[in-house]
Amino acid sequence: MVRNDALYKLWLEFLGDVLQGPPAASTHYEAQLLKLMAESFNGSFASRNHVSPEWENHILSCWPLDYIPNDPPGGYDFRQQPLLRWFVFTGQTAPQSYGRVPAALASDHQKGVWEDLSRPWGVNHQLSIPLRLGGPDHNAYLVSRPDSDFTEQEMALAGLLQPVLTGLSLQLSVAAAQANLVPKSSAHDLTGRELTILTLLSEGLTAEALARRLTISPRTATKHLEHIYRKLDVRDRLMAVQKARLLGILAPTPEIPARAPSKRNCT
């Protein structure tokens, strides 16, 4: 497990870089994340995938770039994809590898069709690490390689990284959205992590709730809030959100259309 310890430390260092980096670098960090994932698991390809409840699969980002087509040729039916069937039918959320999917969920024929389709890109063996984001959609980071299934040591590493990847995914998605809204002159030296927390505050999350969402401790969340209040020169969460909107750091409060007066029958 020495290799796992070293890799986990490397991932924590990467996490620290992301949290202290500017929101505008979110795309750059996503590419770095996927590259690090492929290297950590000796993969030839890594991607972030989204599958809707209707079994529609979308590759949101990948490394190497454009390594594999977003939509497999021939209109492949993802209801037959063995690894996806495992997650949909079992409801499991722990990491899983293609080779560990039992025949009861994916027959030899179903596996053979997938292997014939994926062989040209060398993605026969896959490791999926689901992101625990809630909701009906299936979001996961996927590592693929051509030659062998993933070892028990690699599965253990995947389990260690799952909460880290979930937090990173949320951080990068919020940072990407904020990068398009926040003028460089109005960020008040807020870090990417602080902008993420400020955005969650504007959605009404408490310190405890945003700590759960970001997979950090309540104490760490409180420290981030203290830094935000100091940088914005405010004293509480409500003032922080209001000032951030005035400064253009957060989008303005959406206007609620006035309700038309109800009509009453006069008798």
Short recap of the structure:
The protein has 267 residues and is an alpha+beta fold. Helix content is 47%, strand content 11%. The protein has two domains: 2-161, 2-Layer Sandwich (Beta-Lactamase); 181-246, Arc Repressor Mutant, subunit A (Orthogonal Bundle).
Walk me through the structure.
- The chain is α+β, with helices and mostly antiparallel strands.
- It folds into two domains: 2-161, 2-Layer Sandwich (Beta-Lactamase); 181-246, Winged helix-like DNA-binding domain superfamily/Winged helix DNA-binding domain (Arc Repressor Mutant, subunit A).
- It contains nine helices and five strands.
- The chain has helices spanning 2-20, 26-40, 82-90, 108-118, 152-179, 192-202, 207-213, 218-232, 237-246; strands at 45-51, 57-63, 96-97, 125-130, 138-145.
- It has a five-stranded antiparallel sheet, with helices on both faces.
- A hairpin with a 5-residue loop joins strand 1 (45-51) and strand 2.
- The longest helix is centred in the middle third of the chain and has 28 residues, at 152-179.
- The chain starts with a helix and ends in a 21-residue tail after the last helix.
- Mean pLDDT is 83; it is low at 260-267.
